[in-house]
Amino acid sequence: MKQVVIVIVALVTMLSCTKSEDKLEEDQPLAKGRIVAKNSDFGFNFSDFNVLQDTVQKGDTFGTIINKQNIGDRKVYQIVQSVKDTFDVRIIKPNRAYTLLRSKDKKNKLQLFVYQPDALSYYIFDLRDSIIVAHKKTRPITLRRRTIGGVLKGSLSETLENAGVEAALANRITKIYSWSIDFFKLKKGDRYGITFTEKFINDSIYDGVDNLEASFFEYKGKLVYAFPFVANPTTGKVEYYDEEGKTLRNFFLKTPIKFSRLTSRFTMNRFHPVQKRWKAHKGTDYAAPTGTPITTTASGVVEKTGYTAGNGNYVKVKHNGTYSTQYLHMSKILVRQGQHVNQGDVIGRVGSTGLATGPHVCYRFWKNGKQVDALKLNLPNGEPMNGNNKVRFMQKIAPLKLELDSIADL
Ligand SMILES: [Zn+2]
Predict the structure, then answer these.
(1) 256 C-alpha to center of ligand 1: Å?
(2) Which of 28, 67, 72, 239 lies at 20 to 30 Å from 363 by C-alpha?
């Protein structure tokens, strides 16, 4: 939003560098700021006024700005007093735009002061009558729908930039797909399609992306779709799903072993059964017979395999930029570093290597590089959509998918 304001101010400044400016400032030494190039704004016809625009400087207050208009201390005091109930003068902040509308007669008297805290809203101070009034107005927003797509000619950000879409959409898309696409691995020539709505203030000033309606990216030869949907109207939470209604967020299996017994929880203080001393146990232990298959609780890439005196044989899997899981004390490691694994794939077998009293797997969960208690995490819900939602979802995405598929078929 701030950017938009700056753009407008810059635009106004650029457009108004005309020769008449010097002449005007000579005639009216009080005038501060630039002539406004527009014909009308804020509901006023600018040809009826001497119109000047400027930005709030550091140290300016509502009082000092008004005071510079040479309307007298008493009048300034009166204005500040009369608007203080409707307007918190502290919202006057540096670099925001304001506009002065002055009478066209010889007096060049300040008639209206318009302050724009952002591109969307403005305050009008009407000084024309003895009773001074302040109103807050909001500019109308229009939404326009747009679909872009084809083949990638560069990174996602470059692609969006070339299409004149704000960079923030790239971040949104990267986040939505964080479980399913590594955007660094997209290749030139991969197909994509994105349908979204954009906001325009006063039907003309670009104000960024409002809503992502649908998208797909070709990744490793497959089209990965994303459609927003509110499965639970009570929470109103928007989640993204693929074309079959499966959540795009990966979810974790509850345990890395099918049939097991939880023997030790995550705790900052427990008596270590082998070391015979109190220490943190940053994992969850599941006991099972030696040789029981250990599965990765979510898809990802094997980050590390190895052996240490404490961990024994272990495997660590990276699921996305946020989550990793680790499996300790294996009798056998069945994957290698760098290997891609799918949720439920067997990555090793239960054992008691390292510091262990008996066969079990110590399951460790990492979030943003920190070990956390997997049992206490509010992890993405992997429940499939219920029947009603599925019908609603499929109906909603049908036309969106058709639209995207017409791009994919090119
Ligand atoms: Zn453990």
Answers:
(1) 13
(2) 239
pLDDT at residue 188 greater than cutoff 60: yes
Collapse the DSSP code of 24 into the 3-class scheme (helix H, G, I; strand E, B; otherwise coil) and give the result: helix
| 28 Cβ contact partners less than 8 Å away, ≥ 6 residues apart | 50, 108
Check whether domain 2-138 has CATH 3.10.450.350, yes or no: yes
Q: Residues near 313 by Cβ (< 8 Å), separated by ≥ 6?
A: 305, 306, 307, 328, 329, 330, 331, 332, 333, 348, 351, 353, 354
Q: How far is the CA of 315 from the centre of ligand 1 (A)?
A: 14
The answer to whether 141-241 and 261-376 have equal CATH topology is no
Ligand 1 center–CA 333 separation, angstroms: 17
Rounded Cα distance between 309 and 305, Å, is: 14
Retrieve residue 51's tokens. 């119109």
How many Å lie between the centroid of ligand 1 and the Cα of residue 264?
7
- Per-residue b or e along 220-250, where b marks 16 or more CB atoms closer than 10 Å to that residue's CB: eeebbbbbbbebeeeeeeebbbbbebebbbb
Task: Compute the half-sphere exposure of residue 191: CA atoms within 13 Å on the CB side of its CA.
Answer: 14
Q: Is 155 in contact with 163 (CB distance < 8 Å)?
A: no
Rounded Cα distance, 360 and 77, in Å: 78
Report CA(311)–ligand 1 centroid distance (Å).
Answer: 9
**pLDDT reading at 395 higher than 50:** yes
Judged on CB neighbours under 10 Å (0-12, 13-18, 19+), 268 is exposed
List C-alpha distances in Å: 8 to 96, 144, 156: 10, 20, 27
Name residue 328's amino acid: L
Written out in words, the top-level CATH class of the domain with range 141-241 is alpha beta
> Pick from 122, 124, 96, 128: which is nearest to 110 by CA?
128
In CATH terms, the fold of domain 261-376 is: Glucose Permease (Domain IIA) (2.70.70)
pLDDT digits (tens, 9 = 90+) for 367-384: 999 999 887 876 665 567
Q: What residues have their beta carbon closer than 5 A to ion ligand 1? A: 283, 285, 362
Q: Ligand 1 center to residue 285 CA distance, Å? A: 5
Domain residue ranges of the chain, discontinuous segments joined by +: 2-138, 141-241, 261-376
Question: CA-CA-CA-CA torsion for 378, 381, 382, 387, nearest 10 degrees?
Answer: 160
